Amino acid sequence: MMLCDSAQVADGKLFILGGGWSMIGPGPAPSAIALKVDVGWHEAENAHHWELFLEDADGRPVQIETPDGLQAVEVRGEFNVQRPAEVPEGSPIDMAWAVNLGPLPLAPGSRFTWRLSIDGDSEPDWSLSFTTRMPN
Hints:
The chain is mainly beta.
């Protein structure tokens, strides 16, 4: 996982602009999360559900005001990988995707973490933390 300004996937490859940062702002700005996972051979051909949750420094869900009221900042989706004929049996299969986000109204001078879950599972290193700058 990598924080970046923008990302896209084409032909199974991640194309990343402005990648690898850990500070943003002070004002809202578009951002993206570039992801690459290795799907186990035995997990290929199955549908997988992923979720990204934005949390504050205390591990609480970040909520923003929307036309429908306060909503937690979450992104979710599905993916499925096929076993390519040219990949030896038992090999992991690369899966890349990009999540582009509009500007989020986050409190300046604060720490936030994106946490990833796939099929309800998560690992300690499936997270990205960043800090919002204070205004000048």
